[in-house]
Write a structure and sequence with these properties.
The chain has eleven helices and 16 strands. The protein is of the alpha/beta class. Helix 1 crosses helix 2, helix 2 runs parallel beside helix 3 and helix 6 packs across helix 11.
Length: 387
């Protein structure tokens, strides 16, 4: 990545040619070997970390005027802190263990910065100037460093780096997710989870992709998809975005242990109670925690009413939650669930509730209530739960 970015971005090339110790870490620009004075007027070496905006895989641009710094607060020749830097004490998770961000700085010239080269030059003048004058220190070491951060994505994950949530994203790095049922809710679950840095995603659905599926399926719809297996449609739709996503044209049955080997979490999105019962029994037997997402919608002459449900079955208490009969386990033809009213906005909302609950369980989101069973009433938008 280093040489490609240097070759395609003039401001980065200028930094390298001038001798800055340029590198990249977790989709941030890194400038090492930055000399500065501490409060005792001793020479110290720090590093700059700057956010990048990836326009595409090869071209980047300046994000903002702020910069992160690995080091204590730089001081002037008399040992007093440099006063025009702004910013505050902070931290930023990086892949390189020797890069420890301690603070951020904000020093914006009236006209702003035109590019990354101008930004780095300005901060070096302010921060390294006293060290250069007192010790003849040299920030131009021509060192090159790059920390390769393994990623399942085929695009640079600057969503994570720009939001400064790399440490939270790491909570998913070993997760192997199964999505059982890629219908209305399951397809939106797949869309959300594909963009989550989990290690692997396995989807299971043997049904066909027909015209009605296009009205409750995320992403661009292509006429060529009609009449194909859902597995083929969704495999093609997402394999260009990330690695380790495989959609299998099969149903999960009571004897599907091999298909779920190594799975750390599952989502169940099926509309038949009898199928749900077999899947639940298998997941509980294999000690795989899972979330079941369901909708009960109906129309009695007037507008549509109903409930959205998200129920979590832990690996320890799955059998106890199952005994509460919170999800339909039969194929009663009179069950309102079998009316099969499904709408894209409700499928997406149902999937949102399930994904948010999963991310709460993994410590990505705060979870004050720790509900294992969540009901959202469409009628009054009341959200209730059990814990």
């Amino acid at each position: 990545m280093f040489h490609q970015l240097v070759n395609h971005n003039d401001d980065i090339r200028r930094l390298v040619e001038k001798g800055y110790a340029v590198g990249f870490d977790s989709n941030y620009l890194v400038i090492r070997d930055i000399p500065y004075l501490d409060k005792n007027k001793e020479l110290q070496i720090g590093a700059f970390i700057s956010k990048l905006i990836f326009i595409d895989q090869l071209h980047v641009q300046l994000d903002d005027h702020q910069i992160f710094f690995c080091g204590s607060h730089p001081c002037q020749l008399d040992g007093s802190p440099i006063s025009n830097l702004g910013g505050d004490v902070t931290n930023l998770p990086l892949a390189s263990e020797d890069l420890v961000v301690q603070r951020s700085f904000s020093n914006k010239p009236q006209s702003g910065f035109a590019n990354l080269f101008d930004k780095i030059e300005s901060y070096v003048t302010i921060i390294s100037g006293p060290a250069i004058e007192l010790y003849n220190a040299n920030p131009f070491t021509f060192h090159i460093s790059e920390t390769i951060t393994e990623s399942v994505f085929k695009f640079h994950d600057t969503l994570t780096s720009r939001a400064e949530i790399g440490d939270l994203a790491m909570k998913f790095k070993d997760e192997i997710i199964a999505i059982i049922g890629i219908g209305g809710t399951g397809s939106y679950l797949l869309d959300f989870l594909v963009k989550t840095p989990v290690k692997e995603i396995r989807g299971f659905d043997s049904d066909w992709f027909h015209a009605h599926n296009t009205f409750r399926s995320p992403g661009k719809q292509e006429e060529i998809e009609l009449g194909k297996r859902k597995a083929e449609v969704y495999q093609k739709r997402y394999e260009g975005f990330r690695q380790n996503v495989t959609i299998y044209p099969k149903f999960i049955l009571s004897d599907s242990e091999q298909d779920l080997g190594g799975v750390t979490f599952a989502f169940v999105c099926v509309d038949k109670g009898s199928s749900r019962k077999k899947i639940f029994d298998l997941l509980i037997k294999m000690h795989i925690p899972f979330i079941d997402a369901g909708m009960g919608l109906n129309r009695d002459k007037g507008p549509i009413s109903g409930m959205l449900r998200t129920t979590y079955y832990s690996s320890e208490l799955g059998q106890e939650v199952l005994a509460k009969q919170l999800a339909p386990m039969n194929d009663d033809p009179d069950d309102v669930y079998q009316n099969n009213i499904q709408l894209s906005e409700l499928n997406a909302l149902n999937a949102c509730l399930a994904v948010i609950k999963y991310k709460q369980l993994r410590g990505f989101y705060v979870d004050d209530n720790a509900f294992y069973h969540i009901l959202l009433s469409l009628n009054d938008f009341h959200l209730g739960g059990e814990w």
